[in-house]
Write a structure and sequence with these properties.
By secondary structure, the chain is of the alpha/beta class. It folds into two domains: 84 residues, Rossmann fold; 97 residues, Hexapeptide repeat proteins (UDP N-Acetylglucosamine Acyltransferase, domain 1, 3 Solenoid). It is built from three helices and 23 strands. The strands form four sheets. Strands 3-4-2-1-5-6 form a six-stranded mixed beta sheet. Strands 7-10-13-16-19-22 form a six-stranded parallel beta sheet, with no helix packed on it. A six-stranded parallel beta sheet has the order 9-12-15-18-21-23, with no helix packed on it. Strand 5, helix 3 and strand 6 form a beta-alpha-beta unit. The longest helix has 13 residues. The protein is globular and about 50 Å long.
Length: 200
């Protein structure tokens, strides 16, 4: 299995995989930085030819970066090379029986409430809370400690900052960035950057 990325996010991802005993045959991909081993142990691939060869033995890959646009770029590249997206579920997750996640990564200690819908390629990072009937589009990043309250809607390619709060029924468009600690009380249009204390 290949981790697409070899930075800080990949470190946290590796801890989850180690705790689950899922490191056999694990390697990482990094085409920017030199080096042959990640954490002194796991091989690093640097070229697409190496990825395609690895996929002949195991086609699974995990998105090892948090940035929504980079996650999507890796998804497109790796699937075009024959890869199959594999999602990660950390420990201590509370996940409602009435919710769905379509190939989303959900890290440790998250809460996923009833009737939520989480799109493909999303990252729900450590300690985030996704409450009842929240809908999240594809390849969005919900950072550590963020709270999305009932019936909020988040578009695709969004980044919701650490410890931000999205109030109930608020609708956030696509490609929106919400600052860490912000409290969003009203709907947000596509492409907006939301600062702390944001108000439309």
């Amino acid at each position: 299995m290949i981790i697409a990325g070899a930075g800080g996010h990949a470190l946290e991802l590796l801890d989850i995989l180690i705790s689950e005993g899922k490191t056999e045959g694990l390697c990482f991909f990094d085409e920017v930085n030199p080096g042959d081993l990640f954490q002194g142990k796991y091989p690093i691939l640097h070229k697409e030819e190496e990825i395609a060869k690895a996929f002949l033995e195991d086609p699974k890959f995990i998105l090892g970066t948090g940035n929504p646009k980079v996650r999507y770029q890796f998804y497109q590249r790796f699937t075009s090379l024959g890869g199959l997206l594999h999602s990660v579920k950390g420990r201590g997750i509370v996940f409602s029986n009435f919710s769905t996640d379509n190939e989303a990564d959900i890290f440790n200690l998250c809460f996923i409430g009833a009737n939520t819908q989480i799109g493909k390629g999303c990252l729900i990072n450590t300690g985030a809370q996704i409450h009842h009937e929240v809908v999240i589009g594809e390849f969005s990043e919900i950072n550590p400690g963020a709270v999305l309250l009932g019936k909020a809607q988040i578009g695709s390619f969004c980044s919701i900052g650490a410890n931000a709060t999205i109030l109930p029924k608020v609708k956030i468009g696509n490609n929106v960035t919400v600052a860490a600690g912000a409290v969003v009380i009203e709907d947000v249009l596509d492409g907006v950057q939301v600062a702390i204390g944001y108000r439309c």
